[in-house]
Amino acid sequence: MGVEIERRFLVTDASWRSEALHRQHLVQGYLAREDGVSVRLRLNGAGARLTIKGPGGVCRPEFEYAIPPAEAKEMIATLCAGRRLGKTRHIVPHGGLRWEVDVFEGALAGLVIAEVELPAPDHPVALPPWVGREITGDRRYANAALASAEAPPQG
Amino acid sequence: MGVEIERRFLVTDASWRSEALHRQHLVQGYLAREDGVSVRLRLNGAGARLTIKGPGGVCRPEFEYAIPPAEAKEMIATLCAGRRLGKTRHIVPHGGLRWEVDVFEGALAGLVIAEVELPAPDHPVALPPWVGREITGDRRYANAALASAEAPPQG
Fold first, then answer.
1. Which residues pair with A38 in a beta bridge?
2. Contact B65/A63, CB-based, under 8 Å?
3. What is the pLDDT of residues B41-99, one digit of tens each?
4. Touching check for B59 and chain A: CB below 8 Å?
5. How many whole angstroms separate alpha carbon A122 and alpha carbon A93?
6. Fewest Cβ atoms nearer than 10 Å: which of A2, B15, B44, B102?
7. pLDDT, tens digit, for every residue of B23-51?
8. Testing the interface with A: which of B63, B67, B71 to mutate, by most A Cβ within 10 A?
9. In angstroms, rounded to a whole number, what is the distance separating the alpha carbons of residues B5 and A110?
10. How many CB pairs below 8 Å do chains A and B form together?
11. DSSP assignment, residue A95?
């Protein structure tokens, strides 16, 4: 089984920007979400992927397939109404790990989330000074939920 | 866009069996269903496909991708609880068209549905004598709904 092991945090200030290596604009659409399973389309300019994620907190089952970008684009436009989001992902190395800092746009403007993928759930993580509260497993902050949100979650 | 153009009917007797050419056992699991969009996995013994269908009646948008059977099997087992079905599909030629007669099993035993794919929505269809009521667009009879049903729909 594919497993994604990931911890997620709210970002509290912009000091990460001076350490960012590169960035990429992502458009995501959710075809359907049910019982903690989500089926996501992601376009990154270079290609497209269809990703299935299962329920979980730090560890989630994940299966991913490359698909033709034109078909992903069409499905996002026609089958994901009310279940789409855009964000810019910045890669920021810290403490030997590769952090991804996602700056959301549109209705989610103002929301910035940092994610770090780990080789094991208990892998030590040196928290960067620009992260705040951990939101791993908080379903309000899952991208699948944010895609339908009218504003960033509060509290 | 991929479009599936299909009409569906309840099957009223077993006289189609003498005309059936071959059959195949299918196992299907639905990863998620939302707003008329369904994401289906299908295993047929020879291979596996992931199929996205959109809302519709006779015509439905459809996108399909081959995926590794081992991954489909694992996802059906672990991510599709309560959203699975098994059936045997028989191919029955009639009136120049290729009919598919699905004999459902398990909780759906007794239900037999005939489907025919058409080149155009208004393509003439010579109805075989063994079909009864048309159920095209009747969402209770959609496989995505049947996968969660505890018995065949009534009425």
1. A33, A53
2. no
3. 999 988 999 999 999 889 999 999 999 999 999 999 999 999 999 999 999 999 999 99
4. no
5. 19
6. B15
7. 999 999 999 999 999 999 999 988 999 99
8. B63
9. 44
10. 68
11. T
Helix (H), strand (E), coil (C) string for B118-155:
CCCCCCCCCCCCCEEEECCCCHHHCHHHHCCCCCCCCC
Per CB-CB distance under 8 Å, the chain B contacts of A52 are: 31, 39, 75, 79
pLDDT confidence bin for A135, thresholds 50/70/90? very high
Contact B50 A54 (CB under 8 A): no
Interface test with A, best of B40, B41, B52, B64 (most A CBs within 10 A): B52
Distance CA B65, CA B48 (A): 9
Tokens of A46: 């270079």
pTM score of the predicted model: 0.94
Return the structure tokens found at A107.
């209705």
ipTM, 2 dp: 0.93
